[in-house]
Amino acid sequence: MLGRRADGRRRRPCLSAAAVPHYGAGVDLFTRSWTALRTAVAEIPDPDFARPSGCAGWLVRDLVCHLVIDAQDVLITLATPAATEPTVDAVTYWHVEDGPPSGEDPLDALTVRLAAAYGDPRLLTFHLDDVGSAAGRAAELADPRARVGTRDEVLTVGDYLGAYVLEWTLHHLDLIAHLPDARTLPPEEGLARSRAMLERIAGAAFPASFTDRDALLVGTGRSAPTDAQRAELRDAAVRFPVFLG
């Protein structure tokens, strides 16, 4: 999960996206990644919400509930302006953990209980569409040069949205990990951007033979490398897996 809000009081003027060079492309990638993920959720048949996801210990419904919390965090962060200089960017925002989630985190446990409380999967998807649409609109309206606070850090809105491209892409892969009939896949540009970010975090490039999807899944410990892939990673001196938090 990405967001935690930090305090901030001063409001900044909201500028037109057209006034900021290259911002349209960045917002477009955030928006397309988020739209594709929400579309993939909407297409899931009700029985498949009880299938496992790519997040260890979480069912699909648990992951979707987590996405609701993510959308709330986007709204909270975009409404939490900060007046100080940025302390992180889209890459350094990510924390590298010692291992994968243990399931003992209180918020992780709450997510599972909350997901079960929805009962009908349609209630869960409705909540995601409702809050998720608002988060998407807020991202499109935000000034990319404004500074926001989250997780006791400060970063620009542009970097914050960039960090979430990786979040959306990884969780899209998690969502469809055991859903072979899934129709909506992560955008290719989002996969490529997420791979580039992960390579910067890992401090080395994944072998060219790896697809973007393989680099993300193997690089974050979501799938085990083949013997050939393991040898290539060793030759490339790539540290893996990288557990992000």
From TrEMBL:
Which terms in the Gene Ontology molecular function aspect does this entry carry?
A: isomerase activity
- Keyword Transmembrane helix listed? The answer is no
* Keywords of this entry: Isomerase
Boundaries of every Mycothiol-dependent maleylpyruvate isomerase metal-binding domain copy: 31-175
User: Where do the TM regions start and end?
Assistant: none
- Superkingdom of the organism of origin: Bacteria
Protein name per Swiss-Prot or TrEMBL: Maleylpyruvate isomerase
Species of origin: Streptomyces virginiae
